[in-house]
Design a protein that fits this description.
Blueprint (H helix, E strand, L loop, with lengths): L11 H8 L14 E2 L1 H9 L3 E4 L3 H6 L6 E2 L7 H8 L6 E4 L3 H11 L8 E5 L2 H7 L9 E2 L1 H9 L4 E5 L3 H6 L6 E2 L19 E5 L5 H11 L4 E5 L2 H7 L7
Parallel strand pairs: 1-5, 2-3, 2-4, 4-5, 6-10, 7-8, 7-9, 9-10
InterPro entries: GlpE_sulfurtransferase, Rhodanese-like_dom, Rhodanese-like_dom_sf
Protein name: Rhodanese domain-containing protein
Pfam family, one: Rhodanese
Amino acid sequence: MTDGQAIRPANTDHVIAINQGRERLTMDEPTAPLLSPRKFAELGGEGHAVVDTRSSAAFGRGHIPGSYNIQSSNPEFEQRVGWVVPANLPILLVSEDEGESRRSHHKMAFVGLDRRVKGILSGGMAGWSQGGMAHATLPQISVHELRGQLQNAEGLCTLDVREPDEWAEGHIEGASSMSFRVLADNLEEIGIGPEDHVAVLCAGGIRSSTACSILLRNGYRRVYNVTGGMGAWTVADLPTET
């Protein structure tokens, strides 16, 4: 259903609001309050979206339950926040430390998303851990582990979250395809249920971690991020189809 449709820019709503005079463009450095782990958790429970800007590996080792993993190291960071996080939700930021959260907030100002940021986790994930708050994990599997499980018919589904042109160049036989950018609104189209075991991959394991976090937020319980993605799959000379 989404094949061939253009992805709307992440800052579309903001640009329209500025043109209509309903918002003003941020000229100063954006600011947001530092929140204690308990206050942060309280707002998260009230519907604020938590954006975890750390690496896929760090997110996999432990993260705040229900958070989105959108890595600030990626050049598309602010665009990906706009694509992935529902437009009606206020945002909370969490990183390794407060400084990284501030830098992420600054990047979001380029596409007008900075005003949605309502708080930054004081002390980063270290502060969250020291506060004794709950953690969730995301298992990481290699392409060789994925290949072995697919060969053994262990009931593992594969979801490729790259773009359609990447998919056309080569993909794993039997995999489902859905861009991570539109995944949240099209879960019913991937043919994979919340109780299924699903391995998610992209080109290198970064977009797939974002997609995994979307699945986890939507009730999927057996999700695995494929480290290295199709890049590692190809280097390992594993079979693909076009």
